[in-house]
Amino acid sequence: MMLTGKTIVVTGVSSGIGAETARTIKRQGGTVIGVDRNPAGEAVDSFFQADLSSRDSIDALVASLPHGIDGLANIAGVPPTAPPEVVVAVNVVGLKYLTEKLVSKMSENGAIVSIASLAGVGWADSVPQIRAAEGLEFDQIPDFCREHDIDEQRSYFFSKEAVIVWTLQNRWTWRDRGIRINAVSPGPVETPILADFVKTLGARVEEDMRVMDRPGRPSDIAPVVAFLLSDGSRWIRGVNIPADGGMNSYILSHKHNL
């Protein structure tokens, strides 16, 4: 089994992709440390409640976690129906802060995997905004959102663009310890927050749903995350893998008149 003997921290473990990833890790022989705001299900070996929009909560979480962590699955996220400040705090600033704090407790040759999104496919057009968010602190988020027009329609797209770019940038950051980082970008997935995406993002998601043969399922995404956490992915670094039923290829084909 690919994850036998490995201890993996999974955020957002209480539902959706996070819960399915925990189950997949367990089936593959791993030990799951679950993290979420809400109580976890059965597929965890230990559980820590934390609010990833809070620096203090993340500090307390990291202090409580053991050394010898083999992988971190950054799956926790909030939908675009949340206030823009919360979307940026959880999906970008909290994700990055937790990862950077947790690296000191990770084993050699560990793996970091973050859930991005098909919504981040246009990251190359947003580099100035993304660069402006580098080093962003929690208390600076409201001003940043106002200054850079990160509103309800923009916040989710921006957050996922930023995660993809951050993954690319950190491909070799922890190379001296063999720690690698990658991302997975799902398309629309049948989770408890799919309705929030359709409601807020409207036409863009509806168009995607018409082109796709079906929405994704957590069970389509979790095995990709598990592979990136396993030793079989040790030569994959700084990569964003689309797991979207072909939607990324569809967008690129249209963009380049293919």
Automatic annotation (TrEMBL):
It comes from the Bacteria. SUPFAM superfamilies: NAD(P)-binding Rossmann-fold domains (SSF51735). InterPro entries: NAD(P)-bd_dom_sf, SDR_fam. It holds the Pfam family adh_short_C2. Transmembrane segments: none annotated. PANTHER family: EG:BACR7A4.14 PROTEIN-RELATED (PTHR43975:SF2), ZGC:101858 (PTHR43975). This is NAD(P)-dependent dehydrogenase (Short-subunit alcohol dehydrogenase family).
